[in-house]
Amino acid sequence: MKRTLVRYRNSAFGRYVIRNQKYAPILFFMGGFIFDTLTLGRIDRVYDTVVLCSHMTLLSITLYLYNTVNDDKWEGTFIRRYSEYFPLAIQFFFGALSSAFVIYFFRSVSMSKTMIFFILLVLLLFANEFLKKKISNKYLQFSVYFFISFTFFAFMIPTLIRQMNTFIFIISGLVSLGCTLALIRFIYRSSPGTRAEISLKKLMSIIFCIYITINVFYYFNLIPPVPLALDTGLVAHDVRKINNEYIVTYEKDQWYVFWRKHNIKFHRQADQRVYVFTSVFAPTDLKKAIFHRWKRYNPETGKWEVTDDLGFEVAGGRDRGFRGYTYKNNLEEGQWKVDVITEEELVLGVVDFVIKNTSESYKKGMVKKTF
C-alpha cells in the first residue's frame, strides 16, 4: 500500500494534484452537487433512501473517529495513519447531505416565507466549503451535525411511516435530538481529549438552542412541509378531466418568466369561472388533505382577506404529483392569490394572479396542456 502511494505521489498526475490541491474541495463540492442533482429524485426511492442513510451513518462514524483518533487506543492502527483525511470526509458528508436537502427543499419551497429556511440550507451548503479550517471546532461540528440530523429525520420518518403532521415533526425532532446527544455523550465519555477541550454544558445548550429555533420556524410556518412538494401551480380558464388526464387551458407567460407558467394577469369575461390547478408530489402511500386558500387583496384596508378554503386529498406515489383543482365564480377585479396549504396550514406554494375583466374572449397566449 505504501509503495503504491509513493508511486502515485511521484507520478506526473500525483505531482499535478499536489500542486493544485487547494482547488480540490471546490471541485469535490461541485462534483458532489452535480451528482446529487442528476441522481437524486424521489425521497421515497430505495436508491435515495439508501444514499441518505449511508451518508448519515458514515458521517456519525467519522465524527466519532475524528474526535477520538488522538487517544491511545488508536495508536499504531490504520485509523491513526489516515486520520488526516477525516476532516475532508466530514466535510464531504456535510456537503453531500446539505446538497441533497437543498435539492429536495427546492421542490417544496415557495416564493413565500418558507424561502427563509431554504436560504439557510443554501448558505449551509456553501459555508461547508469554508469549514475545512474550522472543522476542528467541536462546537461547530456538532451544531452542523444536529441541524443536518434534524433535517434528515424530518424527511425520512414521514417518508417511511407514510404520515405527515405536527406530531410526526415533533417526533422527528426528538429522534434527532436523542441521536445527537447520544453521540456527543458517547464521544465525551470515550475521549479524554474531547473532555479537556469542550464544556458539555455549553455544547448541550447550543444544541438545545438550535432545536428550539427549528421548532419556532415550524410553528410560524417558515419550514416547507417536506416531503410534500408543489410541482405545478397555475391559474386557468378551464380544467377538464378526461381519461384520468387533466386538460388545462391557461394564459402562458412570456418565455423569460421561467419561475411561473401562467400569466399573472388573468383576463376574465363576465360569469367566467377562475380555476386554480395544482400538482402536489407526495411519497408513495402518503395521504394528506390539501387546501386552496383563496385570498383577495383589499386596497382599502391594505390586507389580504380569506374568501374560501377549498380542499381535496392527496394520495402519493405519482411522479408528476397528485393533481387537483378548485374554482370560484364572480371574482372581483384586483389582486388575488391562492395559498396551497396542508391541514396544519403549512404553505406548499402560492399562486398569484390579478383579475382583469374583459368584454370579449381573450385569446392571446392561451394554451392547452395535459397534466
UniProtKB/TrEMBL annotation:
Give the source's domain of life in one word.
Bacteria
UniProt entry tagged with the keyword DNA repair: no
**Transmembrane feature ranges:** 23-43, 49-66, 86-106, 112-131, 143-161, 167-188, 200-220
Keywords from the UniProt entry:
Membrane, Transmembrane, Transmembrane helix
Domain DUF2914 stretches: 288-355
- List the signal peptide residues: none
The protein's matches in Pfam families, at most eight in alphabetical order, are given as:
DUF2914 (PF11141)
Can you say what this protein is called? DUF2914 domain-containing protein
Provenance organism: Gillisia hiemivivida
